[in-house]
């Protein structure tokens, strides 16, 4: 990246960091189960709700507990379950239409990050009917209070239940991008381990590594606070202890409970301190090829940590020592390398591949341009990279010869 562009990015990030204490960040109120959702809605006289989810969730019967709780409180509900793994503008518009058609008063995003992101974006469109989804792309383009939004994560990883981001795909252009606005932070987050029991191993693995990526990118970035560092450390410590347990035994209640907490902490950390190039590249792969976000993050993370090198060694080494991955007396370089090795060991132990298959050379310049546009200047990365420099990472991630 040229000197002037780098100076602009760092100046933007510095100003944003100075402004952090004055920005309206908030954390969702935590609810512990489906009956609490229904009671809260009843108390607030919210008697008609839209549930946004996907076919997998609805077909497995995971909504049964929520439906029963709502019926007990005489609350009407309607379900939109067409959300796809990388939610599209069409998903958002269909969910919005269903909300309006049934005169709903609140939205429940039930599922993984895709369902929660779809619910957020639909809420934004409901309150901004003259503004298209594409016009909301980027930072602070909504700036209006959404209908009451409740997030029920069924995976422990995306952290969408805590964040100000909704990520959507323009199905016409295959461009995947975030909408970032404080109004998108859910009012309530429901951390109920029951809905995560028996989650397939592959989803447990990739969503867990997604949470790890959130925590790591937040911690090694240049816009951290004492609170976000503490949240990131707690998340990594919990993932270090419980992710493999949750993977090995889908019915391990302690592991499932603590992984939900890990995802929540990681979400708090990156909501305020942001992520980095791993996410920028992962989003481009999801938009172009439909690569699941957690899988892309898991594969890409160790390659970027190596690419950052000394620019992140001090922070990554500290994180590695705090989480017991490296010894207390290990140098920053050694501790950071031990952390990278541990990430790869975790991926290998959970059958996550080392490379993303199907990346086409002809698509790389466009994807790198999209990743750079998303990341620069917003993401406070350890080392700034231009679109041209990011192209290399697609070759590495895809194991493609130049």
Characterization of this structure:
Helix 7 packs antiparallel against helix 8 (226-248). This protein has a 6-stranded parallel sheet, with helices on both faces. A 3-stranded mixed sheet has the order 5-8-7. With 402 residues, the chain is an alpha/beta fold. The longest helix is centred in the middle third of the chain and has 23 residues, at 226-248. The model has no long low-confidence stretch (mean pLDDT 95). It is built from 15 helices and 9 strands.
Indicate the proportion of strand residues. 5-15%
Described by its quaternary structure, the protein is single chain
- The shape, in one word, is globular
The value of Rg in angstroms is 20 Å
Largest sheet: 6 strands, parallel
Instruction: Give a count of the beta strands, DSSP E runs of length 2 or more.
Output: 9
How would you write the strand order of the largest sheet? 1-9-6-4-2-3
The helix count comes to 15
Instruction: Provide the succession of SSEs.
Output: HEHEHHEHEHEEEEEHHHHHHHHH
Give the mean pLDDT.
95
Task: List low-confidence stretches.
Answer: none
**SS-based structural class?**
alpha/beta
Distance separating the two termini: 20 Å
**Helicity level, as a percent range?**
40-55%
């Amino acid at each position: 990246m040229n000197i002037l562009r780098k100076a602009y990015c760092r100046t933007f990030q510095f100003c944003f960091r100075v402004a952090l204490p004055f920005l309206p960040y908030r954390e969702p109120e935590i609810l512990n189960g489906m009956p609490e959702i229904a009671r809260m809605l009843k108390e607030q006289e919210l008697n008609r709700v839209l549930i946004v989810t996907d076919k997998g969730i609805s077909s497995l019967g995971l909504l049964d507990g929520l439906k029963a709780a709502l019926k007990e409180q005489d609350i009407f509900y309607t379900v939109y379950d067409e959300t796809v793994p990388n939610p599209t503008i069409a998903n958002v518009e269909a969910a919005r239409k269903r909300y309006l058609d049934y005169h709903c008063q609140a939205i429940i995003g039930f599922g993984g990050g895709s369902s929660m992101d779809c619910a957020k974006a639909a809420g934004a469109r409901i309150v901004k009917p003259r503004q298209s989804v594409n016009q909301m792309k980027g930072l602070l383009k909504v700036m209006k209070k959404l209908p009451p939004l409740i997030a029920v994560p069924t995976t422990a990883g995306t952290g969408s239940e805590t964040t100000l981001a909704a990520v959507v795909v323009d199905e016409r252009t295959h461009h995947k991008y975030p909408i970032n606005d404080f109004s998108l932070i859910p009012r309530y987050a429901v951390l109920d381990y029951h809905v995560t029991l028996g989650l397939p191993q592959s989803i447990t693995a990739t969503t867990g590594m997604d949470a790890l990526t959130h925590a790591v990118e937040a911690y090694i970035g240049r816009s951290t606070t004492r609170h976000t560092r503490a949240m990131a450390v707690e998340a990594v410590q919990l993932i270090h202890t419980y992710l493999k347990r949750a993977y090995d035994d889908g019915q391990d209640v302690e592991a499932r409970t603590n992984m939900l907490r890990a995802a929540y902490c990681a979400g708090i950390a990156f909501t305020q301190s942001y992520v980095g190039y791993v996410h920028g590249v992962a989003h481009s792969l999801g938009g172009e090829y439909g690569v699941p976000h957690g899988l892309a993050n898991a594969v890409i993370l160790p390659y970027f940590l190596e690419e950052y090198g000394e620019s992140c060694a001090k922070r990554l080494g500290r994180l590695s020592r705090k989480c017991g991955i490296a010894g207390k007396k290990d140098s920053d370089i050694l501790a950071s390398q031990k952390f990278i090795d541990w990430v790869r060991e975790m991926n290998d132990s959970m059958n996550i591949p080392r490379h993303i298959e199907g990346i086409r050379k002809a698509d790389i310049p466009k994807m790198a341009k999209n990743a750079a546009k998303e990341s620069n200047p917003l993401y406070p990365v350890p080392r700034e990279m231009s679109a041209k420099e990011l192209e290399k990472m697609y070759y590495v991630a895809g194991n493609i010869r130049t």
